[in-house]
Structure formats: C-alpha cells, structure tokens
Amino acid sequence: MNVAQKTDICIGCGMCTAICPSSAIQMQADEHGFLYPTVDAAKCTDCGFCIRKCPISALPQVSAHTNVLTGYAKDETLLPASSSGAIFPVLAAEIIRRSGIVFGAAFDDNFDVIHTAAETLSELATLCSSKYVQSRILTDCYLQVKKALADGRWVYFSGVPCQIAALKNYLGREYETLITQDTACHSVPSPIVWRDYAASLQNQYSGKLTSFSFRNKANGWEDYYIRAEFDNSKEFRQPAAENPYQRGFIKGLYSRNSCFSCKFKGIERCSDITLADYWGVKGIQPKAYNPQGTSLILLHSDKGRALLESCKNKLQITTAADSAFTFNPAVLTPIPKPARYDEFWTGYGKKPFDNLVSACCEPTKEELAKERWNRSLLARAIHRLTR
User: Fold this and answer.
1) Backbone φ, ψ for residue 61 (5° rounding)
2) Are residues 172 and 198 in the same domain?
3) What is the pLDDT along the chain (387 residues), one digit of tens a residue?
4) What is the DSSP code (8-state) at residue 348?
5) Are residues 150 and 39 part of one domain?
6) Residue 62 located in a structural domain
7) Measured between alpha carbons, how far is 192 from 245 in angstroms, rounded to an integer?
8) H/E/C letters for each residue in 84-111?
9) How many CB atoms lie within 10 A of CB 300?
C-alpha cells in the first residue's frame, strides 16, 4: 500500500514526495485544484516508508500541558499588516535576530500561495497576514529546513496544524533550535478557486494584481474587508461579509475534503505555539481588547514558552479567559461539510461564481430543521436554569 491509495484523507502536505527514498512520488492537482500524491509504479519499491511517515497514519505526539494566553504587539505599526495581534512578526523577528530562518506562506509572483523562507525583516513582511488558500510546500522547503537545523541555525516554521505534523514526521526527531507554530485553521480552500477568482478580478479591473489582502484592517480588526491593488493604480475593496470568495470559504464550499474530519484540532498539539484570533474578546475579556487585533496564544512546549518570554517586552500579554474559544470553535473542532458541497462543484465553472456561492450558502430544509431543533433545546435548557 502507498499514499496514492489514501486520497480520501490526504491533507496535501507533500511530505511523502520529500521522504520517498526512490523519488517515486509526485504531487498533482485533481479537478478541484487540490494536490494529491501520484506514485510511479516503475520506481516504487513498496517499502511503505511513505505510509509510516504520513501524518495521517502516524500522528505526532501532542503536548501534555498548554498555557492559553492572549495579547498583541506593543508596536502599533505591526498591527495593520497582521491578521490579528501581530504576535507572529514579533516572535519571527526574534529568530531572525538570532541569525535564524523563518518559513511561512507567501504569495509568489503569480499570486499562488507557497511556503518560502525569510532571512531578513523585509522578507518576513511577505509571510505576515492570512492567505485563505492551501499553501504548497515543495520538497526543497523540507530539505531547506533540515539543512538549516543540521547547520545549527534557529528555524521558525509557521503553517496550518497538519503542515506542522508533516514537518515533524519528516524530520523524525526534535531539534532544540526548531520552533514550530501553527495557525488556528478554519479549513484550506481550493487553489483553483482562488486562482480563478484572482483572474476574474484582474479581468474586471483590466490590470495585474500587485497586492491582495484577505484581512485589511483599515476599518478595524473586526470589520475587516478584502482589498486588492492593480498595476494600473486601480483598487478593489469589499467588506469580507459581502465578498463571494470569503463567504464560500467560511461556508466550506471549496475546502479540502480532509478538513471536514481534521485530526489536528484541540488544545493540545504537536507544535510549540498556536496562534489564533481572539474573537469575542471585547465582551469576554474587555481589558485584553485591541481594536486592531487581539490574538490567542497557546504555548505547548518549554521552547515556545522560552521564545515568548524573550519577547515579553515587545508584547502586551495576559492569561486568557476560560471561555476564550467561544467564538473561534475552529480551534477545537473541524467545520462540518456543507450540505451543498457537491452542488457547488457541479455548478462550478458553469454558473456565475457570485450566484453559485449565494445559492450554495442558503441552508437546506434539513439544516433549517436542525437549527430550529437546536434553538428549541437551548430554550428548554435556559428555562430549566431560570425557573
């Protein structure tokens, strides 16, 4: 058995291509744009190494105790370019100060999202802010991480939780100079849907994209909007709640299938640090609120705790409330597969994107019935508590 036979649960990390001793595996996109392994039978020796290393088959060991904190960067100039509280650029800059190297997701020249390295503060800026597309990790990226660690350099690797698990399995051992940080993940959307959406904007504005932000905070962290700039000086702006790409992403209409049964949720994780938005902080913990972004910081290891401690003068940090995850459930549980998931893909490319997303975001009769039932249960529970 090899990884090509496990496509229903494959996370698309690409680690098997880097680990295969026979170079028999390549990643190829399916009809939805998601990468899956294909195996060259002439090269494959059926050694089973890819299966034994696959993070789905062999989940890395998770932490035993996690500290849950909240905070944001004291340097207000860092906040606008970060999705939430600008914790990542502060921690990553400390690694660069140590002559280390930082890996994370960035747009390439074609606005595809890939994992790349940063060794300077200017390069680090390209890794900041969320990219709501599945990032591709090339074999060279895994090799670059391993070489930097072998050379004794500090490495900070940022990714979604399954990518951290893949890196851990690839390396096969702990390194004192490796810091892994996962970002709380809603799900990973299809690269082809993103590519088509970006192309449609370029056609609409008769220009080539020069910048794109999924989380522009000019109106504040909670009221973020989509912003794109083009080489003809034109600009596109739209509230995220009204943007079809964002709406479809939040609904999960074009998320990877494995996201709906994600094995990497929960408080305890295999990474050193988890970063997330602290949605609802204004009501839950008002003194921790910053209108330009407040982060949740989960410290899973002594290495993570030590790195945060080394940056404490640059951060405003406090312990998070017990109810901190109330409005960010994606930290703890996978999103449900949308009832109209197949309907979306059946209509994709045949119907106008905006119309298709709007139609597929409408709840089905079954979903409406379930919602009414849940409301009824909640009302009964409240009645019992208050009578």
Assistant:
1) -65, 135
2) no
3) 455 555 678 999 999 999 999 999 999 999 999 999 999 999 999 999 999 999 998 988 899 899 999 999 999 999 999 999 999 999 999 999 999 999 999 999 999 999 999 999 999 999 999 999 999 998 999 999 999 999 999 999 999 999 999 999 999 999 999 999 999 999 999 999 999 999 999 999 999 999 999 999 999 999 999 999 999 999 999 999 999 999 999 999 999 999 999 999 999 999 999 999 999 999 999 999 999 999 999 999 999 999 999 999 999 999 999 999 999 999 999 999 999 999 999 999 999 999 999 999 998 877 777 777 777 766 676 666 555
4) B
5) no
6) no
7) 12
8) CCCHHHHHHHHHHHCCCEEEEEEECCCC
9) 24
Q: How many CA atoms lie within 13 A of 137 on its CB side?
A: 26
> How many Cβ atoms are within 10 Å of 189's Cβ, its own excluded?
26
The H or E element that residue 113 is part of is strand 113-118
Q: What is the pTM of this model?
A: 0.92
Task: Residue 375: give the domain boundaries.
Answer: 191-253+338-383
Total count of domains within the chain: 3
- Which two three-digit tokens encode residue 28? 């190829």
Q: What is the greatest pairwise CA distance in the chain? A: 72
Helix (H) or strand (E) holding 309: helix 302-310
Residues 303 and 233 in one domain: no
Which residues fall within 8 angstroms of residue 179, CB to CB, at 6 or more apart?
91, 95, 154, 155, 156, 157, 272, 273, 303, 304, 307
Kindly state whether residues 116 and 247 are assigned to the same domain. Answer: no
Same domain, 151 and 273: yes
Tokens standing for 173? 């051992």
Q: Identify whether the C-beta of residue 360 lies closer than 8 Å to the C-beta of residue 350.
A: no
> Do 179 and 97 lie in a common domain?
yes
